[in-house]
Amino acid sequence: MIRNIILFGTLVFTLFSSCKKQNENPACIDSKVEEFKFIISCSVGSNVKEYEFQSKRVFVFDPGTCGADMTSEVLDENCSSLGFLVGIAGNTKINGEDFNNAKLKRTIWSK
Question: How far apart are CA 104 and CA 51, in angstroms?
């Protein structure tokens, strides 16, 4: 009986400790968010959001409304830039696909 309880406890601990939190950010994204907050973001409308796009987690860094034609950078989980949205050209495509197909997962930070 005690042996079964110990085995069950070990199994439960192993399962929970091996699971990665879904809302956990990659370290490089956390670092970029901190830099973005203090260096790049505008005083109004700035945010960082997580999306699912082309079956991957991507992060959009929107500087907000502090100037005309500002662009929002799209980064993957490895902090590689996939491109920029909006701006003077009004771009809405990343990797040849319209970013309107992306699914918003959550807002990581906003001002």
Answer: 4
